[in-house]
Amino acid sequence: DSGVTQTPKHLITATGQRVTLRCSPRSGDLSVYWYQQSLDQGLQFLIHYYNGEERAKGNILERFSAQQFPDLHSELNLSSLELGDSALYFCASSLRGLFGTDTQYFGPGTRLTVL
Amino acid sequence: DQQVKQNSPSLSVQEGRISILNCDYTNSMFDYFLWYKKYPAEGPTFLISISSIKDKNEDGRFTVFLNKSAKHLSLHIVPSQPGDSAVYFCAASRVNNNDMRFGAGTRLTVKP
Q1: A72: distance to nearest CA of chain B, Å?
Q2: CB pairs under 8 A between A and B
Q3: Quick one: DSSP state of residue A103?
Q4: Is the pLDDT of residue B1 over 70?
Q5: CA B79, CA B103: separation in Å to the nearest integer?
Q6: Per-residue pLDDT tens over the stretch A70-79
Q7: Do A48 and B102 touch (CB under 8 A)?
Q8: Is residue B77 within 8 Å of residue B92, measured between CB atoms?
Q9: How many CA atoms lie within 13 A of A44 on its CB side?
Q10: Which residues contact A61 (CB under 8 A, 6 or more apart)?
Q11: Which of residues 48-67 of B touch A (CB under 8 A)?
Q12: Which residues from A are below 8 Å from B103, CB to CB?
């Protein structure tokens, strides 16, 4: 158990809909990262927040947005969903904001299926 | 664009033997490299890392080698154990640029 929790575990929805994925980091961690893993693909970095502020953006679509709240939990909002958005979405946390060198602790992921 | 490549989608080895997982990268600006292990239905778990100023880092049964001139890194697991059966991802980052790229992963199966 990494200490990072993600809800829900599974999500099935229809094209055009909007969903929110939630992540609670490990106690004491200030950074939250979001990743997408599509079928047979590596992890694609989406976005990084540190202590409530956006620090870095990766391959995140304009239809997607995220935020980190004062209690440090984070939400990833996916809107106007398309079939291709079906994927595993991972959240990770780390103690500091050093993206490359900080050990990241991953949650179990949310599996999103868009029908 | 795939800046980090793991060209072997799968690898099978016998228990007790050495497992060698390979990773190639194209961007010479990457300065930190990591390996993660992932079991089914779980998130990736950090395994070992190496800075670009080193060519080897060892942690118990796990050793990572970095060949900067070839833009290649490898993970050696000796001896391999059935519990090592998992998907292994390599990742490369540019620390001062907030950039990290992952390979597609290699599924390792260690047979008893």
Answers
A1: 20
A2: 66
A3: P
A4: no
A5: 24
A6: 999 999 999 9
A7: no
A8: no
A9: 17
A10: none
A11: 49, 51
A12: 42
Probe site for chain A from B96, B102, B106 (most A CB atoms < 10 A): B102
Give me the mean pLDDT over the A4-32 stretch.
97
Q: In chain B, what are the helix, strand and coil shares in percent, each to the nearest 5?
A: 5, 55, 40
Cis peptide bond upstream of B79, omega within 30 = yes
What are residue B91's DSSP bridge partners?
B34, B102
User: Which amino acid belongs to residue A84?
Assistant: G
Task: Tell me what pLDDT residue A32 has.
Answer: 96
Could you give the strand order of the β-sheet that contains A19-24, starting from the edge strand earlier in sequence?
A5-7, A19-24, A74-78, A64-68
Where are any strands of DSSP class E within B16-102? 19-25, 32-38, 45-51, 56-59, 62-67, 72-77, 86-94, 99-102
Which residue type does A6 have?
A: Q
Distance CA(B35)–CA(B54), nearest Å, equals: 15
Q: 3-state class of B83 per DSSP?
A: helix
Distances from the Cα of A2 to the Cα of A92, A108, B14, angstroms: 9, 9, 29
- The tokens for A3 are 């200490």
Give CA angle at A111 (A104, A4), nearest 5°: 30
Confidence of residue B99 (pLDDT cuts 50, 70, 90): confident
